[in-house]
Design a protein that fits this description.
Layout lengths: L4 H22 L9 E7 L14 E2 L9 E2 L6 E3 L8 E11 L21 E3 L11 E4 L3 E6 L13 E2 L3 H4 L3 E2 L7 E2 L12 E3 L6 E6 L9 E9 L5 H23 L1
Helix pairs in contact: 1-3
Length: about 260
Amino acid sequence: MKTKPGIVAKASVCFVSSFVLLILLTMPAHSDSLPSISVSVWGTSDPWLAGMPARSSASYNPSDAPADYAPANLPVLVSLNVVQGALFTWSATGAVANYQSTNPADFAGPNGMLTGDGIVPHLTGAENGISDVTAPTNALLGVFLGPSQPNLNTAPGALDFSSSASRNYLVLTPALQQVFYMGGGLTDTGIAQTVVAPQGATRLFLGTMDYYQNMDNSGSFAVTVTDPVPEPSTMLLLGSGLVGLWGFRKRVRKS
């Protein structure tokens, strides 16, 4: 017996409508219910010490002062589920100065120092298997790591955030162990920015940008990082529903 096309279409629409409703019911009702974490990122947090054991050093300038050391200058570990393809958004407030100061004029927000000679590379370049970067001094930075100690791997190439266009990305996919600019989490026009976890990523660390030596920096950022990807159970439900819909349509067409 052949089924009329109209009956197939109506049945498909009914099935899809019910399925979409089920998905919506299982999704978080508000952004506040999405997986997120709030952390304090001190100006002394050195990204080039991410994942390194105690007594490791970084960001040393032999003509000035001592290097940064773990654990005192470790960057902040974000305790969210980090897997390849995970999407992260964030917001950040506060201010940091790249030396000991109480003068408000010396501090910059999460976007960092955007004028004069404020945009710099890392003096010692790539360190501990973690890439160099060019970014505004005092800016909020991030770096994805895998499960191993980073200095066991070769550092990737450096990203350059010296231009306004480079800092106003909508979606950024950094490599593993590649330092990237985060700033306050919004473009200049107020659009939320997103970073995508690379292949092999299991950890995300946050720190601040300095030409060298974070140990004498002042201030901190209050950062909230959110993973807006649906829970795995929701994704499984979506996949199962699509398979079911395909099978249903196939059976109807044969009848």
